[in-house]
Each structure stands twice: as C-alpha cells, then as structure tokens.
C-alpha cells in the first residue's frame, strides 16, 4: 500500500465533501490518514504516530468494563483527516458508543461507513454516533446507510439500456458533450448480420449438397416395375444418354444418370416401345433389351408384299387393304429400276412401329432399310461383276429365298439358276406358279404348269418379270456369289433333305421319292 508520509498542510474541512472521514488507513497497523485525493493530489500529513498493533494483541481478554477509557484493541481504526488547524479530540469507542474526552473543545461525529456494510469486520455491530453534550443518548438499530460510492436502488432509465430515443452516442466523445458522427445501435444491423450469415451458411450447404448429389450420392431412381403404360419412340442410332432423356421426359425413369448406369454395356435399338411410368432404370432396360416392350412388327425373309400389307393392317388396327392402297399411292422412295413395285424392297427385319404410325410411313421405313442393306453389300458393283443388273440380282435372290430350305442350300440353288439361264433352260420353279396364283403349296400339278402368267417359269424361259418375295441378306449374298458346281436340278424330298444333280434321270428318281413322302405324310 502507499505510504502517505508528511505533506503540505491539510485543506479546510468541508462538511459536504463525500470523501471526508475515510476511517481506514493502510494495512500496516498504523493510523494513517487515507487521503481520497492521493492519486495526483497534495498529500496530507499524518497527525501523530500511533502504537503498532500486531496480531497477538487481538484477544478476548482485552475487552472488558475495566478497560473503559482505553482504546479497544481493534485493527486499523484510522485517525480522521484534519480539516482545520485545531487539534481534533481523541475519541474512545466501546460497545458502539464514542465519547469526547473531557476538556476537549468539541465532538466530531464519525463519518458513515463508506462501504455501506451493516456489520463491518473492524467495527462492533450496533454502532451509533455519540449524542452531543446535553442531549440524551438513544440507541438506534443498525442502519444500512449508503456509502459515497453506492448507487441508489432505482430502476435503470438510461436510454442505452432501455433502447429509448436518444440512445445514440458520438464518436470520440463518450460524454456526449460535442457533436460528432452518430453511431446507431439498431436491431436492424443485428438482423442484417444474421441474414448475411444465414445466406453464407445456406449457400455453402447448397453447394455441398450439389457436390454430394453429383459426385457421391446415387442417381435418383424409381423403385419397382412402374404403373400404367406409355409409348415412346427412340430414333435409330440414339445414344444411351439421348434415350435416357426421352424416357425421363415421358415419365418412365427418374433420371438420365440412373438409366445410363443401368444400360451400360448394352445396345438398345431404335423403335417404338411400350413401357410403364415411374419404372426403375433397371426394369426399363430389361424390357427394352428383351424385346417384350418393343412395339415391333417383324417381317420374315421371303414374305410377299401382300403378306406385309396384311400384317401391317393388323398391327395398326386398320381395315384390310389400307396398307396396300397406301403402297400404290404414296411415294415410298423406291429406286427407279423398281418400276413402282415395292415387291422385293420391303426388307425383312424387325421394325419398331408405334400404334399411331401411318402405313405409308411404315412401308417407307422398310424400303429405306432395303436401300441401306443394298448399299452395304455394294450391290451395284457386285451385280455388274457377275453380269447382272441390281434388279436382276434382287429377282434371283427372291427365287433363292423361296426355294432353298437350309442355309447350306442357298449357294447351290443360286448355281442351278445361273446354270439354267446359261443353257437357255426354263427354270421350272413351283414357287413362281404359287406367286402367280397367290398361294403357298409344295404340290404342283400338270395343270398348274400351264397357268398363263409371266411369272410361270414352266412356260417362260429366263427370270420372271420381278421379285416374287422380299429376300433377306443371305439370299442376296448367294445371288451375288453362287456356289461352284454343275447342278441343273434339285428337289427337297423332305424337310432337311434337298438333293442336287446334273442328271435328268436322277432328278426323276428324286421327284418320285418326294411324291412318296408326301403321300405317306399327307402332304399336298
């Protein structure tokens, strides 16, 4: 603690001074005056050195009636500061009463406890001031009087704490005594801060979610086989991503990513498909690849144009003859050498056709497929290499398709046609008579061989005027590449047993074997 020491003479006493009479000195055991203006103010002298008191002097034996008139051994009861030039009376304290010694000029009332404590540790409880001479002393209950630094127990009314008008303060002027730039403590600023903070957190969360969704989480997908039905058209040559987009737009799959993941490594043909809404991607891929969902019209090899028209009418739910009429009136894209006849150019394949497809559009698709196949076989150049026109090759291929029963027979049948044409022999094919008569049978009578038709190859040498069916790829290849041999005759005695020969006598024996088999098995 500070040692106040000696200093200039004390200032005059003023009764209104709130710091007057600080009763506590330093804690070194001396009665030193505590000058409230010690920090930066003149120092006031200590009046008289007092006896030092140690801890051993505090005991219960020091307090008793016989010691009245002496100071009780109390710790740190400092001498009051001197506010005038006259010596102050010495005061004795006992049991809360203090009296002036005889012969002293006056009585000085000790100041109130600056700490406002009802029972200060250095003062006996029940303390009350000694009355002036001539007055009756009255005992007063201890009063909790506020000290000079105590604040009144009143509700807070400052605008800063109540957020009332006038709560603004000024920069560089905490006392508010000169104007400056106002700083407004407003709830709007706090709200704005929370909004900005929420936006930052929300934005970061959205970015994180998108990253998780795109790079970590599985692609959105439906569960199960779906419900209802929907028809979708897939263009030829469409990629998996393009197919996935078509399916998503039609409500079949939930996401393109789920579909492409399920279809990875598979090949999906273009065409029309009947699927369900809200299918899992795996279910959609399964239906599209096993053929059960594809709205397909299958044209087998060797079908005649009349058979194709009838099948198309049935598939589209149209009246019989509708497709045949469309074939005559519509521009199907036939090559000029076809002479407007679709026979031989309705290429046998699997066609994905929607139920709302027009018959002319379906027939045009078949002709387009034929043209594509002919181009891939280099038909123009290869036909010229064997001394035939492209149209003659298609006619020969249609004969092979109708007569050959086994794959290994295609090249041999082609060789028989070439050998007979070379030797100016009539082809004599039953298939041409059946085409002319609009029938399909294995039994041809002698009367049938006399049927008047340019397609009757028993009556007319050379090739018929046009194809008798729609040949497939194998028949076209055989027409361009006949198997080497000298065969002039052949007959299918029974299924899987086609016999070739260059001898007329052997051919007659093979024909008798065929007739016997037909009789035994009820053939016509």
UniProtKB/TrEMBL annotation:
InterPro entries, sorted: MLTG-like
Site (described: Important for catalytic activity): 403
Gene3D superfamilies: Endolytic murein transglycosylase
Entry superkingdom: Bacteria
Extent of Low complexity compositional bias: 38-92
Catalysed conversion reaction: a peptidoglycan chain = a peptidoglycan chain with N-acetyl-1,6-anhydromuramyl-[peptide] at the reducing end + a peptidoglycan chain with N-acetylglucosamine at the non-reducing end
EC id: 4.2.2.29
Annotated stretches, region: Disordered: 1-183
Enzyme category, top tier: lyase
Main location: membrane
Keywords: Cell membrane, Cell wall biogenesis/degradation, Lyase, Membrane, Transmembrane, Transmembrane helix
Subcellular location per the Swiss-Prot or TrEMBL entry: Cell membrane
Keyword Phosphoprotein attached: no
Membrane topology designation: Single-pass membrane protein
Matching CDD domains: MltG_like
Keyword Transport (UniProt): no
Residue stretches spanning the membrane: 187-209
Function: Functions as a peptidoglycan terminase that cleaves nascent peptidoglycan strands endolytically to terminate their elongation.
Name of the protein this chain belongs to: Endolytic murein transglycosylase
Species this protein is from: Streptomyces humicola
The organism's taxonomic lineage, starting at the top: Bacteria, Bacillati, Actinomycetota, Actinomycetes, Kitasatosporales
């Amino acid at each position: 603690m500070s040692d106040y020491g000696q200093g200039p003479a004390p200032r005059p006493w003023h009764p209104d001074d709130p710091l007057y009479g600080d009763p506590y000195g330093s804690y070194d055991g001396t009665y030193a005056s505590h000058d409230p203006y010690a920090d930066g103010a003149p120092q006031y002298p200590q009046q008289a050195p007092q006896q030092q008191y140690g801890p051993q002097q505090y005991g219960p034996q020091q307090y008793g009636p016989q010691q009245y008139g002496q100071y009780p051994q109390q710790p740190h009861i400092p001498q009051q500061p001197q506010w005038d030039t006259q010596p102050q009376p010495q005061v004795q304290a006992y049991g809360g009463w203090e009296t002036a010694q005889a012969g002293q000029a006056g009585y000085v009332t000790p100041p109130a406890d600056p700490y406002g404590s009802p029972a200060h540790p250095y003062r006996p409880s029940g303390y009350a001031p000694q009355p002036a001479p001539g007055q009756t002393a009255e005992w007063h209950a201890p009063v909790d009087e506020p000290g000079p630094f105590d604040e009144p127990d009143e509700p807070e009314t400052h605008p800063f704490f109540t957020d009332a008008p006038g709560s603004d303060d000024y920069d560089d002027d905490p006392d508010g005594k000169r104007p400056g730039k106002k700083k407004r403590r407003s709830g709007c600023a706090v709200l704005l801060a929370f909004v900005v903070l929420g936006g930052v957190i929300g934005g970061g969360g959205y970015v994180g979610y998108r990253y998780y969704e795109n790079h970590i989480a599985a692609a959105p997908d439906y569960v199960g086989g779906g419900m209802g039905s929907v028809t979708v058209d897939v263009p030829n040559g469409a990629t998996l991503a393009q197919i996935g987009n078509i399916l998503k737009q039609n409500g079949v799959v939930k996401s393109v990513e789920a579909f492409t993941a399920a279809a990875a490594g598979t090949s999906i043909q273009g065409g029309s498909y009947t699927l369900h809404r809200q299918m899992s991607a795996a279910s959609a891929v399964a239906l599209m690849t096993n053929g059960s969902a594809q709205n397909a019209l299958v044209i087998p090899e060797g079908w005649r144009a009349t058979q194709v028209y009838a099948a198309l009418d049935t598939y589209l739910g149209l009246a019989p003859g509708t497709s045949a009429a469309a074939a005559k009136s519509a521009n199907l894209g036939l090559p000029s050498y076809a002479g407007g006849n679709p026979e031989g150019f309705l290429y046998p394949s699997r066609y994905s056709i929607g139920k709302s497809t027009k018959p002319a559009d379906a027939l045009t698709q078949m002709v387009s497929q034929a043209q594509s196949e002919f181009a891939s076989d280099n038909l123009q150049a290869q036909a010229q290499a064997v001394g035939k026109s492209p149209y003659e090759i298609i006619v020969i291929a249609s004969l092979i398709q109708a007569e050959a029963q086994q794959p290994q027979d295609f090249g041999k049948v082609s060789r028989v046609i070439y050998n007979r044409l070379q030797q100016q022999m009539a082809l004599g094919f039953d298939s041409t008579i059946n085409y002319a008569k609009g029938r399909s049978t294995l039994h041809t009578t002698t009367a049938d061989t006399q049927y008047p038709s340019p397609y009757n190859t028993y009556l007319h040498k050379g090739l018929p005027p046009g194809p008798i069916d729609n040949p497939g790829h194998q028949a076209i290849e055989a027409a361009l590449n006949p198997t080497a041999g000298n065969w002039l005759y052949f007959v299918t005695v029974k299924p899987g047993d086609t016999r070739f020969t260059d001898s007329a006598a052997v051919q007659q024996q093979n024909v008798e074997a065929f007739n016997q088999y037909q009789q035994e098995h009820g053939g016509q």
